[in-house]
Structure prediction request, 350 residues.
Amino acid sequence: MPTAPTPASAGLSILDKCPCCGSSELVEPLPKTLRYDNGLESWIRSGRLTQIGDVPAQDFARVEWRVCRNCTLIFCLKRPGLENADSWYGELFRSVERRNYDVTPLPREYVENQISFAREFAATLNADGVLNDVGSVLHLRCNAGHILNGILQLRPGIEVYGIEYFDAPAAHAATLLGEDVIRVMKMPEPRNPFGRSRFDLILAEHYLTHAHNPVEYLDYLVGLLSPGGKLVIFNEQDHELTMKRRQHYRRGINFFHKQLFTRRTLHDFLCSRDLTVRELPHPRGRKWAVSNHSLLFVCQKGHSAPLASGSSGEAVALMQGWLALHRRQRRIDALLQPLESLKRLVSWTR
Prediction:
């Protein structure tokens, strides 16, 4: 049985305002007593995780979601401090979310999926002209480096840099692209570790969802852009699809995801930071091969109008629909638990 990582120092912050627009007009969409993170909860019940920093882990195993009445963002109130987060965040993330691809060698299916998605992703950027006049690219959450490699195949000579949470994919990326351009940074808001201070293109994958201070972190990323540079945000609004499909997605709505963006709330948040925003479709009008919810938001300094306004009631209904399935699935899991225990017993006695 794996041992839980011992967090360093992490205080507990409880927000009283929306982390994106600053409004204090908030709606509580779910019951206070609901345990919302099955993965974290199992570690707590087994005694493998008792604290996250100086805070009892139990404090993070209960829902504290809110919906902002103003911008309709769904967000989590409770946030641990980020001081020394690299000493506990990555390993806890890997273990609780069961990131089974963080192994050497990388699973073949994972690599094949990454290559397939990277090929389409790079082709989309190239067809749209996003790669025009680009001399340097920084990819946040570069996985095994295949997107950066795909860009190099189309535009040789571009300088590429990547940051990744997990060791095994990062090692693969370093082998593919060079050890000096890949860094492992196990934290939700990594800073630029490279000698270059500006980048013509930044690809940010699923980092705003994890950010404890999304406004500050988005502004930081924009500050890394060269004049005329572009920021491509993607794989951020995937939880909207999860909840709309009423999927029981254990890893999706949990301790690590602090903002559950929808297409509209993400678009409007980006606009609020004085960015021009446009959504990039698949070049052939199809859904993406790997992540059909990975809309690409191409951003540059400037101004865009927000999308048509929604309501906080829509966001509340979205979460409550997910909750209904979550509860039903938990009842099914409880009924199946004796069968799973019997299967394990049979396998041990063979």
Q: What stands out?
A: The CA atoms of residues 205 and 234 lie 5 Å apart. The chain is about 35% helix and 20% strand.
